[in-house]
Amino acid sequence: MDDKAAQSKQPLSYRLMTYNIGGGRKQYTSETSLILQVVRTVSPDIVVIQEAARFLDVEGRWHSDLDEVFDALGGDARHVFTPTLSMREHMHPRNKTMANAVFDDHQDWQQGNAIVSRWPFHRPGNPGRPGAPLSVPLRRSPVYEGSRDTEPRAALLARIGRAPQFPIVVGVHLSTLVGERGKDIIPGKPEQAAGLREEETQLLLDLLRSRVLDQNEVVFLLGDFNATINEPSIKHLLDVAGFMLATPMNGIVSTHSEVKDAIDHIFLFPSGRVVEYQSFVVDTEAAHRASDHLPVVTDVVVC
């Protein structure tokens, strides 16, 4: 075996984390310090964040909770934020955060997906060259009506600059609809929402199949899927696309305060390159107070 082939077989370890931080801000008015406490305790190598937010003040300065998360991982970390929702593009009075931002004199408010990595980002199509992650739309409603029923959804795709694997990291936040869960379920809404998530998953796989999956590249797919493991979208990832679900081993099932089963997941691909993994849900007092989602963490070794 030559040196290059031997290097390509060298196992490398990663600590992955997915975390929806928006619920704490919107429902619990939690302090960012709680989220930072959770992130510092876990100390992930790569964290995918859903519902990260930032606002532009009246003097033209951006303020972001992501900046503090970035700082919590140390000076060598890199991060990218891509908005899926913004005041300037989607302003609607029924979105309470946007309405409040008007009277807080904010010039803009944005919410979206983010990735923080201890390694630099490289080009998706040219692993050896520095580059930037890309946001890929998965759902676009003709008109945003102020609720999650018409909220845009996207996948954030990054190439991690860690040789020789240069893994692809994909962060997602799939659709959820008003009335699909909780106490006041609207007939037909759960099925409609599951159908949307299946369509979004299919689009993502269409993007990845020929250039990534068929090439047997290492892929980490993380996020708030808003889907339990028995839904068609998840089954398709496992049974058809060949992803491996990093099942938590600490017995915690629910990752959301209103859903009895996990809806936040970490998937690994291909299974043949996974040497070992261990996954767990962060079930601490700080995590329960910080957001309505509990983060999921996976330690994985891939070759």
Could you list some keywords that capture this structure?
303 residues; alpha+beta; Deoxyribonuclease I, Chain A; seven-stranded mixed beta sheet
Overview of this structure, please?
With 303 residues, this protein is of the alpha+beta class. It is built from nine helices and 14 strands. Helix 7 (189-213) links the parallel strand 9 and strand 10 (219-224). The longest helix has 25 residues, at 189-213. It starts with a helix and ends with a strand.
What's the architecture in CATH terms? Answer: 4-Layer Sandwich
Strand fraction: 25-35%
What is the C-alpha radius of gyration, as a whole number of Å? 19 Å
Query: Can you tell me the residue ranges where pLDDT is under 50 for at least 5 consecutive residues?
Result: 1-7
**Element pattern in H and E:** HEHHEEHEHHEEEEEHEHEEEHE
Give me the count of strands: 14
Task: Give the SSE layout.
Layout: H1 3-8, E1 12-20, H2 22-28, H3 32-42, E2 46-56, E3 62-64, H4 65-72, E4 78-86, H5 87-90, H6 96-103, E5 108-117, E6 121-122, E7 134-139, E8 153-160, E9 168-173, H7 189-213, E10 219-224, H8 232-240, E11 244-245, E12 264-269, E13 274-281, H9 285-290, E14 296-302
Parallel strand pairs: 1-2, 9-10
Antiparallel strand pairs: 1-14, 2-3, 2-5, 4-5, 6-8, 7-8, 8-9, 10-12, 11-12, 13-14
Helix pairs in contact: 3-4, 7-8
